[in-house]
Specification:
Low-confidence stretches: none
Number of strands: 4
Distance between the termini: 62 Å
CATH architecture: 2-Layer Sandwich
CATH topology: Nucleotidyltransferase, domain 5
Strand order of the largest sheet: 3-2-1-4
Largest sheet: 4 strands, mixed
Number of domains: 1
Shape: globular
Radius of gyration: 17 Å
Order of helices and strands: HHEEEHHEHHH
Number of helices: 7
Mean pLDDT: 92
Structural class: alpha+beta
């Protein structure tokens, strides 16, 4: 069997473009939990994940579905919009801080890093929720986008209502 560099089979998750192992290893070496943000076709998922030898352990989690079920987010509103991502990040941070976690590093996976995007809306929610995550303020979305007033005025009211339900009074 050939053993050259071109014949070697890469890891399955790397071949499927799901994991960047080099970036993952750099994050794991720090020993700090990762604040994972993933945006799917239907909703956002925010998790606080710590590395364990037998597999990653989820310490806190919030999704777009949990916003609808537990925090008065409108059923017909998008679960992956900028305001929904912000609120999911806020809910996850409140849960994590309540469990005694204070810091994390952001893990965006293979998603594109776009200033003011949904991933950074979730980051803003996490930092306003009390988690210390290193970041630059110029990547965070504006207040208008966080409140949803760029989408609809009714959504801005829903954001405030959901924010009070989560416990974020800022």
């Amino acid at each position: 069997m050939a053993k050259g560099r071109n014949q070697r089979l890469r890891f399955k998750r790397r071949r499927a473009a799901e994991t960047d192992y080099h970036r993952r290893m750099r994050m794991l070496k720090g020993g700090v939990p990762r604040a994972v943000v993933r945006v799917s076709n239907t909703q956002v998922t925010c998790q606080l994940v710590s590395y364990e030898i037998d597999g990653d352990r989820i310490l806190a989690s919030a999704t777009g579905k949990s916003l609808v079920d537990n925090h008065k987010w409108p059923l017909d509103a998008s679960r992956k919009s900028v305001p929904a991502c912000y609120l999911a990040g806020l809910a996850m941070a409140k849960q994590a801080v309540g469990d005694g976690h204070k810091e994390a590093i952001l893990d965006i996976g293979l998603a594109a890093s776009t200033r003011g995007g949904r991933i950074y809306a979730a980051l803003r929610g996490m930092t306003e929720g009390g988690l210390a995550i290193p970041h630059s303020d110029d990547v965070l979305p504006s207040d208008e986008r966080i409140n949803g007033s760029h989408i609809d005025e009714g959504l801005a009211k829903a954001v405030e209502k959901t924010k009070k339900s989560i416990g974020g009074s800022k």
